[in-house]
Amino acid sequence: MVYDKESVGTLAIAIDGVGLLCVELYDHEHAATVRAAFAAGATGRVHRAEPLPPPGSTGPPYALVQMSVDAPSLAQLKPGGERLTRGSLCLVGGASDLFISLARDGEHDGWEGGMTCVGRVLEPELSSLVEAVILPMPVKTSVHPSGVQMTMLAKELPCRLVTYPDPLARERDCHWPDPPGSSTRDIRATRRATMAVVNKLLESYLVDDQVADGPVLVGPVGQVPPHDERNLAVAQLLVGDF
C-alpha cells in the first residue's frame, strides 16, 4: 500500500494512561475524511480489548483493540478494501469506531467486506503499548444485541486523534521501551536525527515538487535500527510512485 502523502509522519492516537500510538494513513478514497478527523482533534474512548483466539479459531476473543471516536463523518464512509492484518487501523462500517487488528494468522480474513483498512499502527508502539499495556488491562465480558460475545475494558480509556506539524515534532512526543541489546538514549537520538533528515526531504519535496531520489535517501534511512518501521514508512512514501 502507498501511504497518504498529505499526512505522512504526522498522525497519532493519544491514549490516556498508555501513550502515543503513531499511525500512517494509506492513500485511498477515504484518506481525506480520516485525515480531517485527526486534524480536528476528535476525541473518543478505547473500550474493547480482545486477545488472540485459540489456534485455529477466529473468535471469540477477536484479536483487536477498539475505540469509539466523536467524528460522525467517519460513519458515512463506504466499507470495503484491503485484507486486515496485524497492525491494520480499521474503520467499522456504518460507525465512527476505529479498531487495531492484532490478527497474526488470518483471524480477520473476510472482514474487509464490512470494515475499511485506513492505515497502520506502527512499531514499536503496536507491540509495546497496544499488546503489552492495553491487552493485559482488567476486562469484562459483554454480549452485543446480535449475540456476539465481546471482551470490554473494565475502565474505558479516553483518547484523542492528533496531528503534528511535522515528523520530528511527533517523534519528540513518542515514548517507547528499550529494545533488547540497545540503548534507548542512543536509538532515540538516531531516530530523531533521521527524522530531521526526512523532514528536510519532505520540505524539499514540497518546495521543488519532486521526490528525493534513492541515493539521497538511502544513507540516513539505512542507519535506522531494523526494529523500527516508522522511518521505513516515510521512506516508502518518498521513493514511491505518485
Structural summary, described in words:
With 242 residues, this protein is an alpha+beta fold. The chain has 2 domains: 11-163, Cyclophilin; 178-238, no CATH class. It contains 6 helices and 9 strands, in the order ββαβββββαββαααα. It has helices spanning 31-39, 125-134, 167-172, 184-208, 214-222, 230-238; strands spanning 11-15, 19-25, 43-50, 64-69, 88-92, 97-101, 115-121, 139-143, 149-163. The model is unreliable at 205-228 and 236-242 (pLDDT under 50).
Summarize the structure.
This protein has 242 residues and is of the alpha+beta class. It contains six helices and nine strands; from the N terminus they run E-E-H-E-E-E-E-E-H-E-E-H-H-H-H. The protein folds into two domains: 11-163, Cyclophilin (Beta Barrel); 178-238, no CATH class.
Tally of individual domains: 2
Written as H for each helix and E for each strand, in order along the chain, the element string is: EEHEEEEEHEEHHHH
Shape: globular
- Estimated radius of gyration: 18 Å
Class from helix and strand fractions: alpha+beta
CATH topology of the largest domain: Cyclophilin
**β-strand amount:** 25-35%
CA distance, first residue to last residue: 12 Å
Please give the number of β-strands. 9
Helicity, as a percent range: 25-40%
At the first level of CATH, what is the class of the largest domain? Answer: Mainly Beta
